[in-house]
Every structure is written in structure tokens, then in C-alpha cells.
């Protein structure tokens, strides 16, 4: 009897330990971010590119020939204020139909989060010139004369201008810079996209939509006849992009 009791206690401890390990495994979840695109609810993929078929708020007809943009700094904030930041970034490339889905390597604990968000572009701590070899190889750099670092978005295509001529546009978003003086003057144009409160019970997939039409309308109605090229050194144009882009993303659904 004296031998049975210690064996029973050891077995009980082992069972409880195994139960704790299983709970730890179950309490961690992967999060995936899927990106889809539309023009005022009409779905867009690269199969819709290269054809003039969209009309912006200013009445200009246009096509899309290239769309790629950077997201980074995925952040999950718990209800108690604790913040979990998932390392990594993702260059969403609609043109080549790549990186439309992004799963950070780190997991997060299950539970309720008051906010899940990501950054459009790079914040100042991450926007360091030349350090990301994969981005360097995709011509994503910003010229030194404009402060270096990296693009946030490249949206290109053609539009029918006020002479009925098809004209190219290059809607490129970077950190706003005024290089007209002796020194560069910057203004931040990265922004946070807050996906709202969510309870994570299992591996979760966030389905995020970008309404491309929003880049041309809200709060600034975009006139492509005036603002179509050489927008990177245009400080005011970059601020307008920053303001319009805040309305471009929305959370469609979360699958668990």
C-alpha cells in the first residue's frame, strides 16, 4: 500500500502536467491576413488589369496596370492594455498575384483583443534605407534625394484625360517630403488600419478588402488631369494620399 500511494501521486502529477502542456498548445493561435481588392464593391484581380473600365469620383475613366503595397507592424492589443506586435512585413503584389496572404511566424494567445491592427507602409523605426534585401530587389526603394527608405504603395494605370487621350498615371505613396529648401522636411504618411475588437478562439484568418476607388475620393477628390505623375516629390499630393488611404481598407470577415 505504501508503494501504491507514491505511484498514484506521481501518475496524477504527470497527468496534470500533460494537461497543462496541451492547454498551452491550444491557447496559441496563428493569424493570417488575406487581402482582396475591389472598385466600389466590384471585385478586382490582375485579370481585370490593363482595360479602361473604372470611373473615379472626378469622372475620369481609368485602368489599373500595377498595384502593390506594403503592410507591416501587425499589432494585437488585449483588453488589459498589453500589446503584442508580430514581426515581419508583407509586400502585397496584386499585379503578379503574390503575397495576397500573409501569416506571421509568431503566434498569439487566444482570447479577446480590443484591437487588431496593421500599418500601411513602414513606420519611422522600420523605414530604414537599404536594409531589406527582398524589397531592394523589387525596386521598392525611394531615391536618396527624397529621403530614402521605401515605397508604401505603387498604383499605376492609364486614364482618359481632358483631351480624350489615354495618359499614364503613377500614384506612388511614400513618406511626404519637401525637398525645395536647403534641408529635407518630412511628414509621416504611414497609418494604422484598425480592424476592431475580436475574440480569437482558434487559428484566425482576417479577410481584408481594399476599395481602390477610395484612393481617389475621400476626403480629397482626385483630379488625374492635375495629379497623375511626379507625385513622389509632391509634398501636398502625398498628404492627400495619406488622408484618402485611411478610408480604403475594411475588414470583410474573420474565419476561425
UniProtKB/TrEMBL annotation:
<protein>
    <recommendedName>
        <fullName>Copper-binding protein MbnP-like domain-containing protein</fullName>
    </recommendedName>
</protein>
<dbReference type="InterPro" id="IPR046863">
    <property type="entry name" value="MbnP-like_dom"/>
</dbReference>
<dbReference type="Pfam" id="PF20243">
    <property type="entry name" value="MbnP"/>
</dbReference>
<feature type="domain" description="Copper-binding protein MbnP-like">
    <location>
        <begin position="29"/>
        <end position="226"/>
    </location>
</feature>
Amino acid at each position: 500500500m505504501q508503494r501504491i500511494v507514491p505511484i498514484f501521486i506521481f501518475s496524477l502529477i504527470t497527468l496534470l502536467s500533460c494537461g497543462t502542456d496541451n492547454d498551452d498548445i491550444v491557447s496559441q493561435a496563428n493569424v493570417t491576413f488575406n487581402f482582396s481588392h475591389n472598385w466600389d464593391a466590384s471585385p478586382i484581380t490582375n485579370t481585370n488589369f490593363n482595360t479602361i473600365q473604372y470611373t473615379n469620383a472626378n469622372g475620369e475613366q481609368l485602368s489599373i496596370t500595377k498595384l502593390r503595397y506594403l503592410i507591416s507592424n501587425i499589432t494585437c492589443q488585449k483588453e488589459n492594455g498589453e500589446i503584442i506586435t508580430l514581426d515581419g512585413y508583407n509586400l502585397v503584389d496584386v499585379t503578379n498575384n503574390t503575397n495576397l496572404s500573409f501569416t506571421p511566424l509568431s503566434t498569439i494567445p487566444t482570447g479577446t483583443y480590443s484591437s487588431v491592427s496593421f500599418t500601411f507602409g513602414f513606420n519611422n523605426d522600420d523605414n530604414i534605407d537599404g536594409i531589406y534585401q527582398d524589397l531592394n530587389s523589387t525596386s521598392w526603394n525611394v531615391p536618396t534625394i527624397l529621403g530614402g527608405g521605401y515605397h508604401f504603395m505603387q498604383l499605376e494605370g492609364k486614364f482618359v484625360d481632358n483631351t480624350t487621350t489615354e495618359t499614364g498615371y503613377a500614384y506612388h505613396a511614400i513618406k511626404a517630403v519637401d525637398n525645395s529648401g536647403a534641408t529635407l522636411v518630412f511628414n509621416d504618411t504611414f497609418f494604422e488600419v484598425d480592424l476592431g475588437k475580436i475574440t480569437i478562439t482558434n487559428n484566425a484568418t482576417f479577410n481584408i478588402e481594399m476599395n481602390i476607388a477610395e484612393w481617389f475620393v475621400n476626403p480629397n477628390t482626385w483630379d488625374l488631369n492635375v495629379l497623375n505623375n511626379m507625385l513622389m516629390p509632391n509634398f501636398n499630393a502625398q498628404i492627400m494620399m495619406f488622408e484618402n488611404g485611411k478610408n480604403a481598407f475594411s475588414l470583410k470577415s474573420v474565419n476561425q
